[in-house]
Design goal:
Structural class: alpha/beta
Shape: globular
Radius of gyration: 18 Å
Order of helices and strands: EHEHEHEHEHEEEEHEHHEE
Largest sheet: 5 strands, parallel
CATH superfamily of the largest domain: Response regulator
Number of strands: 12
Strand content: 15-25%
Number of helices: 8
Distance between the termini: 44 Å
CATH architecture of the largest domain: 3-Layer(aba) Sandwich
């Protein structure tokens, strides 16, 4: 069954070019030309991935991401001419999964889409498969008030479920199953994004910050995810 993609972009030429290409690739593509219509369309139908521009009329891309993230962990790919490190960090910080700068190659954006959908599908299928095997013992790890169910892809803090994206849970799972092991940023990128690392530290830094904000009591003084300056990160939970 073809995947459904929502494209939110105010440049009609880009929309037509990208929609025609993705349809030939086998996707169903719906388009909105401003942020407000994009959010409305997202709430009316089910989508497997959202591509959103940052600079748009009526509602900018950051606000769109924030509204989608209130109730959904669907993969979100930012596509924007704003390519500064600050812009990337802002977009990723509000819940986007990836960022591609304009002008972009169609081959590159197709690869990013496939990778994002594959990760999200694996995440979802793993949770469903684990639910079907409820009779078997789940592998649950506890660290203080954190409870991490590796089989069911669930994490909670003080009994409250944490709304982790697929990437955030993958990072958490990698850490907790390898306590005290130091991971460089290149290693993290390779394990989680399954791609070659080109030194784009913002992607790693923002996802680590988002994860800390959800699991740590004091994200600025983390108890679990420790930074080794100039090297990488490690998990210190007992």
């Amino acid at each position: 069954m073809p995947y459904n993609i929502l494209l939110i972009e105010d440049d009609t030429q880009i929309v037509e070019m990208l929609r025609n290409y993705l349809v030939k690739e086998g996707y169903n593509v719906s388009a909105a030309f401003n942020g407000l219509d994009g959010v409305t369309l997202f709430r009316q139908s089910a989508f497997d991935l959202v591509i959103v521009d940052i600079m748009m009329p009526k509602l900018d891309g950051i606000e769109v991401i924030k509204l989608i993230r209130e109730n959904s962990s669907v993969p979100i790919l930012i596509m924007s001419a704003k390519d500064s490190d600050v812009d990337k960090a802002i977009g990723l910080g509000f819940g986007a999964d990836d960022y591609i700068a304009k002008p972009f190659s169609l081959i590159e954006i197709s690869a990013r889409i496939k990778a994002s959908i594959r990760r999200a599908t694996t995440y979802s299928n793993s949770r469903l498969a684990a639910a079907d095997q409820a009779s078997s013992a789940s592998k649950v790890l506890t660290f203080g008030d954190l409870r991490i169910d590796l089989d069911n892809y669930l994490a909670s803090k003080q009994g409250t479920d944490l709304k982790l994206t697929a990437k955030e849970f993958e990072i958490l799972k990698l850490f907790v199953t390898n306590p005290n092991r130091v991971f460089t940023k290149a290693q993290l990128y390779g394990f989680i994004w399954n791609d070659e690392y080109y030194g784009d530290e913002n992607v790693i830094n923002v996802h680590i910050r988002r994860l800390r904000e959800k699991i740590e009591d004091q994200p600025s003084e983390p108890r679990y995810i420790k930074t080794l300056w100039g090297i990488g990160y490690k998990w210190e939970g007992q």
